[in-house]
Amino acid sequence: MTHDTIYSRFREVALRQPEAPAIIEEAETLTYAQLDRLANRIMARFYDRRLPIIGIVMSHGAEQIAAMLAVLKSGAAYVPAEPSLPQERIDYMMHEAGVQLVLTDRFCRHLPESADDLPDRSVPDGLAYILYTSGTSGRPKGVEIENHSVVNYAEAFETEFKTGPGDIMLQYSVCSFDIFVEEVFTTLLNGAAIAIPTPAIRNGSIDGLMKFIERHDVTIIDGFPYLLAELNKLPTLPQSVNLLISGGDVIRGSYITNLRKPGIRIYNTYGPSETTVCSNYFRADNAEPLDDGTFPIGKAVKGVEVRILDKNLKPVAKGAVGEICIFGEGVGRGYLGNPPEQRNFVTLPDGTRMYRSGDLGYELPDGNLAFLHRRDEQVMILGKRVEPEEVENVLNSCPGVERGIVRAFLDDNGLHYLTAYFVAKDKPTLHDIRSHMASELVDFMIPEFFVRVPSIPLTDRGKVDTDALPVVMKEGGV
């Protein structure tokens, strides 16, 4: 285990290159020294309280990232949430995590003009953050990640991509997903800079985003496969871009046909949030896709080991299908509150810890791994993990729904979408149902289609007969 923490590694960089750019925004650029001082000023407002877990609900920008560094330096862990999330979801996350203080944009506007450089209380095996993902219990579950795991991942990132001073990473992901961790901490812990677009640019056209990238000489774009598919439609990319990283879902050969150009590296990455962002990398720009049109997920990153195991956790023969199991520095502490999914974190007789991903895959002859599909019902929607059961629970809480079920299907491109089936009561409108679900779920979790049925078909054993449900077909989007 490394002896460094996220903050201590950042501090080393800040002392080594204090005047180097750390955060680039349209209005201003913060150097490493300025970002460190801002984090210290934020921390000064709560340092004496010695809180173990602190919420962060802030808009994207330098103050948000400084707030995360402040929490980490204080020895606490942070729980991030987008201000746009349903309030009920934010409240649930903060309450379950035991948060007693939430940092907001307003909190960070009332800071002391200066503050003493307070001691760093972070420790390598201390909790760094809790990310909430979709849970089978019908409620989101919090993944606990320690400092050393993030430091290891930053080292793995630098080892593979050779990033550092002079590189500029686009900050595009929402803070509640681990692509954000990759964007921010692999950058700041390796001496590069982060470029953060305004909300108008972030939510605007792809052309506006490309102009931002060109203005600020962004070199690295990191995102879901759908972003690469959009970039693939453009006649050209800004000349500064030399690295494209795809993660969160399968990447297909058709997504990068026009992006395969000299000077641009393209990577497919894989890894659950439970194992700190990514466990595997595969360079795709100089490789051909597999027979199904997808790329392999590659080999384990530095400090991580990935094995294909059978149901008894024994290695399968090379080329045989098994479960993707992850070992090493990236494996998180577990889930907050010990939900049923905690069983996926396994401690072997020799004390080794591993995470059972629930994904099926196999080893290719060249040693790279290929991903097949989920073992359970969890699916990826727009690159984000969704448990249909969680969505189903919310559907059944709608006042006008007597009984509902949610099922996932594949469109023509092999991407998942959700369909809700429900037996109605009191003649609900689709607007009423959608509005209720939007009050508890993030927008990508709301089914694309709603089908009103007279009854839910059942098998002879009393289980839902999915094959008897009408399928609303969807044409592939990319």
Strand content: 25-35%
DSSP summary: helix tally: 11
Mean pLDDT: 92
Instruction: Please state the structural category.
Output: alpha/beta
What does this structure look like?
With 478 residues, the chain is α/β, with parallel strands linked by helices. The protein has two domains: 6-373, ANL, N-terminal domain (Rossmann fold), CATH 3.40.50.12780; 387-468, ANL, C-terminal domain (GMP Synthetase, Chain A, domain 3), CATH 3.30.300.30. The protein is 23% helix and 26% strand. The chain is built from eleven helices and 25 strands. Strands 10-11-12-13-14 form a five-stranded mixed beta sheet, with helices on both faces. Strands 15, 16, 18, 19 and 20 form a five-stranded antiparallel beta sheet that branches. The radius of gyration is 22 Å and the shape is globular.
Core attributes:
5-stranded mixed sheet; GMP Synthetase, Chain A, domain 3; globular; 478 residues; 5-stranded antiparallel sheet; 11 helices; single chain; alpha/beta; Rossmann fold
What's this entry about, in short?
The protein is α/β, with parallel strands linked by helices and 478 residues long. The protein has two domains: 6-373, ANL, N-terminal domain (Rossmann fold, 3-Layer(aba) Sandwich); 387-468, GMP Synthetase, Chain A, domain 3.
Helices and strands in order, then pairings?
Blueprint: H1 6-16, E1 21-24, E2 29-31, H2 32-43, E3 53-57, H3 62-73, E4 77-80, H4 87-96, E5 102-104, E6 127-133, E7 141-146, H5 147-161, E8 168-170, H6 178-188, E9 193-195, H7 199-202, H8 206-215, E10 220-223, H9 225-231, E11 243-246, E12 265-270, E13 280-283, E14 299-300, E15 304-309, E16 322-328, E17 334-335, E18 345-347, E19 353-363, E20 369-374, E21 379-381, E22 384-386, H10 388-395, E23 401-410, E24 416-424, H11 430-438, E25 449-452
Parallel strand pairs: 1-9, 3-4, 3-5, 8-9, 10-11, 11-12, 24-25
Antiparallel strand pairs: 1-2, 6-7, 7-17, 12-13, 13-14, 15-16, 16-19, 18-19, 19-20, 21-22, 23-24
Helix pairs in contact: 2-3, 5-6
